[in-house]
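User: Structure please.
Assistant: Input sequence and predicted structure:
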Amino acid sequence: MGVALSPCSLPQTRKPAFELADDEMEIGLGIHGEPGMTRGKLAGADEVAAQLLDRITDELQLRRGDRVAVLVNGLGSTTLMELYIVFRKTAEILDSLGVHIHRSYVGEYVTSLEMGGCSITVMKLDDELAGLIDHPADCPALTQL
């Protein structure tokens, strides 16, 4: 689930992919600027994280004792500090549900040029998926030992 706080500019036109007022945010948008599910008034990071996670936890039907991998991804112009604020709230909510974060990633992994905002991805893990996600990787986008 993603939230846009500002649009990206398309390289071929140098115009914004969509428009948002200074006090608006769009929830559920696509990485390429596809329209979101809802548009509303700008909210703080904790409230935004809670809104995104509410939909995710409902969809995954997370239960006490489940293990997950969490990715908080920047969309291009959101600072690392802001992403960690979103992760802090994400971890707090999952902990309150009794869900264990097996592995977490915070940073810019898939951006939408210079779009403001972030996305939260949660993957429910079983033993096989946990083993796979723990596997070492060394490539330009990810080093995991």
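The longest strand covers residues 116-125.
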